[in-house]
Amino acid sequence: MSRFQIIRHGLLVRGRARHFSSVSLADIDHFRTVLPPHAILTTLPTVATAPVAPAELDQYNRDWMGKYTGKATTVLKPRTTHEVSKIVKWCNEREIAVVPQGGNTGLVGGSVPLHDELILSLASMNNVRSFDPVSGILIADAGCILQSLTDYVAPYNHIMPIDLGAKGSCHIGGNVATNAGGLRLLRYGSLHGSVLGLEVVLPDGTVLDQLTSLRKDNTGYDLKQLFIGAEGTLGVITGVSLLTPPAPQASNNVILALPHFDNVQPLYRKVKRALSEILSAFEFIDRAAYDLAVKHGQGRALNPEDVEGAECFVLVETSGGRREHDEEKLTDLLAELLGAEKPLINTGVLSQSPAQFSSLWALREGVTEAVSKEGKAYKYDISIPLAHFKTVVDSTRKHLGVKGLLGDHAVKHVVGYGHVGDGNLHLNIVAAAYTDEIQDALEPFVYELVSSYRGSISAEHGIGAMKTHALHYSKDEVSIALMRKIKAIFDPRGIMNPGKVLE
Ligand SMILES: Cc1cc2nc3c(=O)[nH]c(=O)nc-3n(C[C@H](O)[C@H](O)[C@H](O)COP(=O)(O)OP(=O)(O)OC[C@H]3O[C@@H](n4cnc5c(N)ncnc54)[C@H](O)[C@@H]3O)c2cc1C
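Above: query sequence and flavin-adenine dinucleotide SMILES. Below: predicted holo C-alpha cells.
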C-alpha cells in the first residue's frame, strides 16, 4: 500500500505509521524451513503449501466482539520457543509486523491485526512444563488454555490464581499479556504478584529466559513486569511460571438482592467485617445486567419474588478451610442482614449444592456473553471509586437519551456490572449496531467522566487498539514518554503489535 493511499484512507494514524512489509511468497518459503506445512495457514497462492480460503482465517482476523477485523494473509502456529524465535527474527529483519495471538478473547481489539500483519498464534504451544505440588509453582507454555491449567492442578488440590468468563478459550500467555484481573483478584491479587517468571522472545528473536521459580529474587530490575500487561507490544511470551494457591476446602456463594445501589458500599463494609479471611469475591450486577443474563439463559433465574424491587445484585463468595465454619459465618451474616431494622438487602439466595453454586456464578460470569448476544457492545472497563458506579451508568444513559440515541434502533441498554471489591466497573452500552453517532456520543464523554473521578480508563482489559487515543486520560505525559522509550528499546523497528497500546 502506498503512502498516498494510506493517508487518503485515513489509516496513517495506526499501525502503518511505519512502512511494514506484507508477507510475501518468499517469506512463506522461509517459514516452511521453520514449521511443518500444517502450521502455516496462508491465503497466498503457494505451490508447496495449499492456500486456505480467506474465510478460514476469519477466526484469527476477527475479534471476539466482532468489532475489529484484520486482513492478515498468514497465520503461523509454532510449537516451540525456538520456532517462535526464528519466525520473529525473520520478521524483524524483513520488517513484517507481528500480532501475537492467544485465545483471541481480548475485549479491546488488541489480538487482531489492524492491517495485514502476520498473526503468530500460540495455540500449538500448549504443554505444561512442570508442576511442583509442594510449592504450587506451575511452569507452562504460553498457549495453555486457562481452563486446562485449572483442570491440571486440581488433582493436586491447587487452583489457578486467576479465573474469568473466557477461561475455556483464553490462554495463560494472553492473560499475562493483558494482565487480566477477573474473579479471583480480590483474594489472590494481580498477575504482577502471581507470575514468578516469564520466557519471552524479543522482537529481534533473542530469547529472554526469566522463567525462574523463585519466590524471592531482588537482583536488580524486575524485567518480567514490563511484559505483564504489555499486550504483545514488547515481545512474545512463550512460557509462564506462576504460583498457584492451594484449593480452598470449601466454597460457598450467595446472591443478594439490594433495593438501592446506595446500599452496596455499606454492605461491602459489613460483608468484609463479617467474613474477613474467607471472603473471596464480591461481584456486582445492576438490574439491567441481571435481566440480560437471565434473558440469554446464563445461570438460573432467581424466583420472581426474590428479585422484585431489586435495583442491583451482589454475589458474595467464600473460600475457606472448613465447610461448617464458613457456612455458619455466611448464614449468621445473612440473618444479621435480613434481621436489621433497615435491611440493606431484600433477600439472599444461598447455594445449597455444587450445581446451584455454578448457577449463581453463571448469572454473573454470563453477563459478558449475554451482552454480546443482545447486540453490539461498546465496552468501558473502568476503575472508579465504588460510590460513583451508579452515577457513571446513569449519567451515560441520560447523556445518550439527550442525544436521542436510546431505543431499539440505536442504544438498547446501558448496563453496569463488575468487580466491586476491586473498584472495577464494566460499563456496557448495548446497541443495535456499531455507529459513528453512538461512538461520538460516548467519547470523550465517558473518558472525561472517568477522569473527573481520577479513575482509570482501563481497569483490566488493556488498551489494545480501542483506547490508544484515550491513554492520556489515565497516564500523564511523562509516563507516556517513558512508555515510548521502553517500546523503542525493546522493539526499535516497531514490529510488535503496531497500533496497540501506543499510537
Ligand atoms: C466472556 C469474557 C469474559 C472476560 N472476563 C474478563 C475478566 O473478568 N477480567 C479480565 O481482565 N478480562 C476478561 N476478559 C478479557 C481478557 O483480556 C481475555 O479474555 C484474556 O485475558 C485474553 O487472553 P487471550 O489468550 O484470549 O488473549 P488474546 O485475546 O489472544 O490477546 C490479548 C492481547 O494479548 C496479546 N497476547 C496474547 N498472547 C500473547 C503472548 N503469548 N505473548 C505476547 N502477547 C500476547 C495479544 O497480542 C493481544 O494484545 C474476558 C473476555 C471474555 C470474552
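The first helix runs from residue 3 to 8.
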